[in-house]
Model the fold of this input.
Amino acid sequence: MKLSVGEKAPVFSAKDQKGKTHRLADYKGEWLLIYFYPRDFTSGCTREACEFRDNFEQLKKKVNIVGVSADSQESHAKFAAKHDLPFTLLADKKRQIISAYGAKVGIFTRRFSYLIGPEGRIAKIYRSVNPKIHAKQILKDLETFHSP
Done:
């Protein structure tokens, strides 16, 4: 399934690293970055998560961050604790969210991100993500959406 800018974001419901359930509806009226990544503790995924962490103070003023992979809630808890990640990681072991957002390719998860606007529609799609610069790219793009 290939999503497009302007479409309603697919609904989701999953538990985070602390056992709390998150739904798309929880972010109504707010900006949301939902990012998909292959696995906890791999080099690219760690780099991307740490870039979000290092830019979190700026990001949290404009957007909620939710990472999604097929790893377990326990793996996410260890990953978040080891790297001091201050944002939500959702466990999608059955790959339902990953599939709904078109980030599933065979048994793997693509590194995709979606910026979802306050009305629940997709504002921007990132299908080619560079973990080293993605956080700064999000900040730059949010400036264009937040400017008068």
